[in-house]
Amino acid sequence: MMTKIKPHGPLPSQAQLAYLEDELAAFIHFGPNTFYDQEWGSGQEDPKRFNPTKLDAREWVRVLKETGFKKLILVVKHHDGFVLYPSAYTDYSVKASPWRDGKGDLLLEVSQAATEFDMDLGVYLSPWDAHSPLYHVDREAEYNGYYLAQLKEILSNSAYGNAGKLTEVWMDGARGEGAQKVNYEFVTWFETIRDLQGDCLIFSTEGTSIRWIGNERGYAGDPLWQKVKPDQLGTEAELDYLQHGDPSGTLFSIGEADVSLRPGWFYHPDQDNKVKTPKELMDIYFTSVGKNGVLLLNVPPNKAGRFAEADVKSLRGFAQLQQQIFGHNLLKHAAVTCKTIAGKGAAVVDNNYDTSCEPKAIQGKATFIFTTPQPISFNVLSVQEDIRKGQRVEKFSLSYLDVQGKWQKIATGTTVGHKRLLSFSEVKAKKIKLTIDESRGIPAIAEIGLYRQSP
């Protein structure tokens, strides 16, 4: 049921809404750096070192799908310029390696697996290319043409993507010390992406549908607005601005929180005992998805082309934790009291994002009161706005009715957006109240949930 309030501010595209609903995406960094045991290549690495003898892209996608990930972004070309598919525009690619006798195409293998398991697929194509002789300020037009040609080569190939569809293009803004300050023709690149792949999400330093969250720890700001002013972005954008967004922003731009499962982005054998635990991943989930963002978690394959056992074990533990915590909404059978101007209060506990209600503000506050059949013990709150009408909530609070009949405040939060999670000391109660304390217009609340996270 769509609500009747007018849209407020910039609204998400269908692709942006789908990404927020998916919540989890996986990054895969894999290339010469894996075989040189390094993070950044010089562009002079020998392609003959690239030879993952047991590579199984199907296993990558299967594991990610089974552990709750909805999208995979493959680093097709990192800063070293080595390309993981047989590009017609450079010889510095898999065709110069012994892998698959020089006839391999990793992007194709991942695409076939993504299609089989119905996994969204995106590509990372580094604008900085340390290998290409065209990457020089005196040859900007030639280099921009080279990059554009590779974009077209990937995006126009119906064999790439999930059934030919690519959902995200990742343009890293990094550039190494001493690298040429080549100016990129972003406008042309962006137009090409949209022409060839429609509503395809774009990550870049510019005003695009996805922005960097400002750190590589998987940590979003508080508050977090999924909107910005394009003139505040670019390579010199303030990290604080990226982290928090802008309540007066004119462009809907998702803050994507990227972080690696290991200390490095590429696989290093000496980091096998430094893999993030399921508990650490859950903490990151709360600080990314739980703050109205999306989580892009890097899972780097080893030299054989497989996920390490420790990585798979951690991913499976993380998936189990998600199910243990969020598998059952303790408010599912609660009676809901809320004065509304549209929709019914019960819509917020029906486990259906497509139904929502618009609470009536009384003295500037809107309230939802939940009465459960029996007292419940809980320590996690989840709140979701229907952001198809715009992000509005600025401040909210949670209270419970104590045995003396007085409301006791448990927790407070700022922005909500697509999803906001709060954790707090465990409380047992039968009557709970969620208050929207401040909002930019009437909010549309889609879902509210209470959960219990075990110690």
What does this structure look like?
By secondary structure, this protein is an alpha/beta fold. The protein is built from 9 helices and 18 strands. The strands form 4 sheets. An 8-stranded parallel sheet has the order 5-4-3-2-1-10-9-6. Strands 11, 14, 15, 16, 17 and 18 form a 6-stranded antiparallel sheet that branches. Helix 5 runs parallel beside helix 6 (186-197). The longest helix is centred in the last third of the chain and has 18 residues, at 309-326. It is globular and about 75 Å long. The mean pLDDT is 96.
Present the secondary structure layout.
Layout: H1 14-22, E1 24-28, H2 32-36, H3 57-66, E2 71-77, H4 106-117, E3 120-125, H5 140-155, E4 168-170, H6 186-197, E5 201-203, E6 210-212, E7 227-228, H7 239-244, E8 251-252, E9 254-260, H8 278-287, E10 294-298, H9 309-326, E11 335-337, E12 340-342, E13 358-359, E14 366-385, E15 393-401, E16 407-413, E17 420-439, E18 445-451
Parallel strand pairs: 1-2, 1-10, 2-3, 3-4, 4-5, 6-9, 9-10
Antiparallel strand pairs: 7-8, 11-14, 12-13, 14-17, 14-18, 15-16, 15-17
